[in-house]
Design a protein that fits this description.
By secondary structure, this protein is mainly alpha-helical. The protein has one domain. It has helices spanning 12-29, 31-68, 77-85. It is elongated, with a radius of gyration of 18 Å. The two termini are 22 Å apart.
Length: 87
């Protein structure tokens, strides 16, 4: 098995996507506790968290299916993006 090496770098688009992910992550995990909990109460917050968890599980299952549908191809997301873009 040959060992492949990659140059590590972040393009402008990679930095933008990383920043967007941080914004969404902050909104998903910090905002519910500080903003929504006082307004919705514990029951409303629990229902919202269960719905959100179900949506995340569906997205995760889709990613799992997508990356396991390539037989013998155990590449990660970043490496797959490089292969598709041709970087």
């Amino acid at each position: 098995m040959e060992k492949r090496t990659f140059n590590r770098y972040l393009s402008g688009a990679d930095v933008w996507v990383l920043s967007l992910g941080c914004i969404i992550g902050w909104g998903a995990f910090v905002m519910p506790g500080t903003t929504f909990l006082p307004a919705a109460g514990p029951t409303g917050m629990a229902i919202a968290m269960l719905i959100s968890a179900a949506i995340m599980l569906v997205i995760g299952a889709n990613y799992h299916y997508r990356y396991r549908s390539h037989d013998g191809d155990d590449n990660g997301c970043f490496e797959r993006k490089q292969m598709v873009k041709g970087d």
